[in-house]
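Translate sequence into structure tokens.
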Amino acid sequence: MLQSNNTPEHMLAGMLRNAAPAPMPTNIPNEKTNAERRAEFLEIVRNFVCKDRNVTHGDAEDNFRVIATLWETYLQGTPPQNLNSVDVAIMMCLFKVARLMANPKNMENWHDLAGYAACGGGIVMKKLEEEKKQY
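Result follows.
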């Protein structure tokens, strides 16, 4: 005998599927402990670090070697204690260039590169504006 799709259980399941989620009550305290939060955070980090990122960025050690070479080239003649915010922006751009060398099709790296360049450009523009005010 065929069962009807209009059984109370089936109708309730359909109503629950189509119902909007209930708003979260604001008076219930967060019951996670600090240790649980740290564990959750580390699980997120583990997922980033331990998943196979070779497809996206190449082997980490190889990529770090390329980054080190780019940074060494950039830093020639600049003592590390004299680094400033513009140097950091440029070095982060070089970091993304190294990532793009491993995978130029990864759009996230292009976006990040543009973002670091915009930050560096903004820093330089501010410094130039301040210099004009001094004259």
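Note: The first helix runs from residue 8 to 18.
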